[in-house]
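General statements about sequence and structure are easier to judge against a single worked case. For one protein, we set the task of working out the structure tokens from the amino acid sequence alone. This step matters because it turns folding into a mapping between discrete strings. The amino acid sequence and the backbone structure tokens for this protein are reproduced below.
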Amino acid sequence: MLENEPGTGTEGELKRWLDGIGLGHYTDLFAQHRLDLDVIGDLTESDLVELGLPLGDRKRIQRAMAALFQAETAEAPVEAVRPQARAEVGAERRQLTTMFCDMVDSTSLSAQFDPEDVRDMIAGFRETCVRVVKHYEGFAARFVGDGILVYFGYPTAHEDDAERAVRAGLEIVRVLSTAHAVEQRGALSHSPAVRIGIATGLVVVGDLVGQGTEERDSAVGETVNLAARLQALAPPNGVVISASTQSLLKGKFDYRNLGVHVLKGIPEKAQAWHVVRASRVETRFAAARGSRLTPLVNREEEIALLMGRWQQAKDGDGQVVVKFGEPGIGKSRIIQEIFERISGDRHGQVSLQCSPYYTSTAFHPFVDQLKFSLPCARDAAGDRIRGPALDRPDVPRGDRPSGRPGAEPADPGHHHRAIRIPAELERAFTHHHRGPEPP
């Protein structure tokens, strides 16, 4: 008998197995293709189709193969099961932005409040953070006491995961800084504060399963540790980010340089930035490019077309131009070039831009443009509008702006400033006029 020829004992086991499931007539077919019980579990649907088995018999064999595998696994000793095989399933290298949220002074709460009250406070803190994180499509991966580890970029990746993480952090700060956790059965209250650290870098993320251990969606890498260490540098209700995260955000936020720090477990000194607020820029393009603008290349035809439409508009023939295309091909760069070329002409310029973070907020582009154009400032969280007009008793409270798109109605006792929109708008659009005054 040849060395590679299946033995009669193996053929007998295969025949008994096929007879047991009522498919003994396939014994010769399987033997012809040198298929034994040791490879039965590797057969796929396409393999069975290639063998010529009809659909019903294919399903019977697949069901029997599953039962055979389960029986072998149950009979095998614990030592025979390879724990490392599952550990690598689903793990992958990812560019990930990690955020670590920690409740400030949570340890001292145990001395001030009853354990049940502390438990409710931590639960409320978690719920608030997770609600905001889900809004920005982040993933709360792990809860460690009153701390939360959040991933942006896993399992769903976005091109702006770093921005989503920082916006989520600022929103958590805003919500917690204005909220009050009140114990329902008594008069005790506590206003929770949060410290947030954010870092971006390469990690290996996925399920980490071994013999007697199991951890789902675990991220391994320096980025996770860096986010936890940066959190310790943040002030109460503050967000601190790494240099890698800040380099991705550019001018989208206002920062305070915290300098270089030696962090435990991090081999090199780390630059830290305190995020103050979202920057007041008119468009995402202006925020992304900052003060630098690359030269325009090979867009003469598009520029000539748009300049021709502009000349027609100047001559009294109004024009509407729709410019569309794939992301990143330079649409905003062309529009910026047009703005620079007509800067000497008298014109009004208004930019309205949608945002993926306000899909449920009606008229957000208009609200955002008003907040940019009106001569008003925001508070520390960058959310509420403060204008020069004083609170007017003749303006109903329901008609006064809350200052934040999509915000919940404020408490009745909360004070709002009303803005005289028509006059302010006139001055705002006058400010946007460029070029010499007409004679």
Summary: The two ends are 108 Å apart (CA to CA). The chain has a mean pLDDT of 75. The CA atoms of residues 15 and 164 lie 60 Å apart. The longest strand covers residues 194-210.
